[in-house]
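Blinded run. Sample ID left blank on purpose so nobody reads anything into the name before looking at the predicted structure. Input follows.
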Amino acid sequence: MKYFILTILFFTTAINAQKKTNAKVALDSTNYYIELANFHKKNNNFRSSQEYIQKAIEFAEIKKDIQAQADAYSFLGSVYFELKKIEDAIQTYDKSIKLYSTQKPSSNQAYALYNLGVCYVEMKDYSKAEFYFKGAENIYEIIEIPEAKEMVNLQKGIVYRAKGENQLALSILNTIIVKPDEEDHFKTKAEALYQIGLIEAENNRNNLAINYLTKAMELSTKNKNFELKAKVAKSLSEVYEKMIDINNSFKYIKQHIRIRDSIKEIINKRVGTEDFLSFKQAEQLKSIDQMNRENKEQQRANKFSKLISILSIALISILSLLSLSLYKNNIIRSQSNKQLQDKNQELQIAKDKAEKASKARAEFLSTVSHELRTPLNAINGITHLLIEENPKKSQLQYLTSLKFSGDYLLTFINDILEINRVESENIEIESINVNVKQLLSDLHNSFKDLASKNNNEFILEIDEKIPDHLIGDPTKLSQIFINLINNALKFTKNGKVSIGASVVKTENDISTVHFEIADTGIGIPIEKQSSIFESFSQGSVEINRKYGGTGLGLAIVKRLVSLLGGEIQLISSQGIGSTFSFDIDFKLGQQTFVEVKKQYDESIFVHKKVLVVEDNKINQMITKKMLENKEIICELVDNGEEAIEMVRSNEYDLILMDVHLPGINGTEATEKIRVFNKTIPVIALTAISLNENREMLLSFGMNDVVTKPFNPDNFYKVIANQLSSI
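Blinded prediction complete.
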């Protein structure tokens, strides 16, 4: 806790007072050892600090100096507390307080009682904490130090909040936060803001909670109180999660983990630092020679004092002349700066407006796309179930058309989410082994059926000089090729589509590969070529109606190629065809062996017991029917609280957990289940983009993620993989 910094002030004050009354303090004394212990503590050499404070205790016992013993034990308690050895700190403070009780009331005694109360707060023993805070408060009143009451009041407010007595807590905490920052002598304001933020969060006043917590974050950063900053970041993450602001929630939980790990690392270094060279004989010699050095320094100071006085007068004269010159220059400069500031302000306003418009557009598209996924899941799911139930031939035609429309709409939604994602600054590029030749060959095989439908000749030309093992991002390469090949095949009939890849050069472990997708299709008019890579852009309204599509594919391609270090090029003539090309630099990789996973056996589903946690009745029906089609036993609940109790009371082979639920959400429910059951597989069901949130969901204890609307093959595959791992 930050209040332990004040320990240094108490003992430093006591030592300085002793020096004033006796100029020749004995080096072999309790104060001397405490001073050495404090020196090593400041330098993070906690082992040496403990050794010297132990010598201070032994010396005080020999001299039968009760006050010195109490001071030494109190200092040792602060050392243990900073090392997070709370139980050792409590034992040591107990000894200190027992010794202080035989002496006159003092600020050191009150501070020891206060610190012991803080220790019990850390241990969540609030009754004992209140007892010792009250003792500290009484002594501060006796010795008339009213300023220290602010520290005690803060801790009392913390205790009241922890006990659920929020009104009492607020009555205290509000008196602290109204003080100006410059009057916050004990740095209590940040902690008080944090505690009020927790209370507002408990009362579901999330906006107020964020306001208080944000102020607490600012002050804790200013005060360099990293422990409080870590707690505030965690609380902000939890509040934003309640408000379903996933981006901010994820940002603050990452900040919390980073600060928490830094604090742990500092504590570990404190415990494991090397001993500082501080032999008793060396310290004694330093003290003996101190007087001689001070005398010599005083003589030198007297010699230089006259010279300094002369130089000071000369310097003041020069500065006066410079000040006059600067004053005149500042008048001219201020006029120029005013003009520049006005222009900069105009530019900043324009920039802010553009950024807000871009952000609003991205948020709107993302929100609409996400909201469409839940009803689309019902459409696609029911269509899939009806097709599996052997419908009449006349009905099958309608169901097939419905499935096509649902898949088309899902593709449209995914394209919107993808363009928002690639335009953001959060996208990451993988650097793993990739066989470019195999990747293109696989894509060529997968598009053969589409090529035959339009009676197209589909050619793959790969340069054998391309290395088998390159370092790149296979996922983003696949996205680029899929979009370009799909467009080429879609806009070409009775023609030719070719995929080409060739080595441009290889040097310094870098291989530059040229890629080219060419077709003999309808081509792109010259006037449209400059805008074809923009979002929602197509050649014309007629093309959109005839061929369909979102107009997002090429915008995604351009952004992904740029992220991989290339630049997309286009050569096209209307009625003749189009050629898209780009160059990518790859580092040379090494051969790796990839284990091929076996396809699952459907017998793994039979008689398995699955709990489905889903609040949407239609989704419940669809999911249950899909599971029962595989002879899986299915039970349904519609909220997280009931799901926790069902898992506690029954045996299940797997849980399908919707992320967004009434009451506590799916991630919170999973965390609570993991407290008593760490093995049962939990699969998250979410309508949010999988690529944006998969790692976050897995961090809460979930084993895998399925995105709504379900792809039946992927849905069953994920379940089979988890059941086979039991």
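Unblinding after everyone has recorded impressions. Residues 58 and 209 are 50 Å apart (CA to CA).
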